[in-house]
Sequence to fold (108 residues):
Amino acid sequence: MSLDTPQAETRRERLTKHEALERLEHERTSRLTQLRAIDEARSDAEEQVMSTQKDTIKRVLAEVEAAFARVGDGSYGNCRNCAKPIPVERLEILPYTPFCMPCQRDAA
Fold:
């Protein structure tokens, strides 16, 4: 390995507040778009399936809103159960999660 080779980028431990807010805003917008699409595509035959989808989207939307509150109070990025930092990789994929993976598995 050459000494001229740049060092590998160090792994970030936390999302910045701006990054968290951007990801959460994207999640919120996506879920609201999904709800509008479901409302516009209603038919009696699909009502039960759409009702289930709508309930799921509303649940996720509530989780997104709760994550916005955690950003506001400074607790975003810490597990709600064990208080340890949630890995940034998990927050990049699921920005509204309130739990680290071990606590999520225990809750399931």
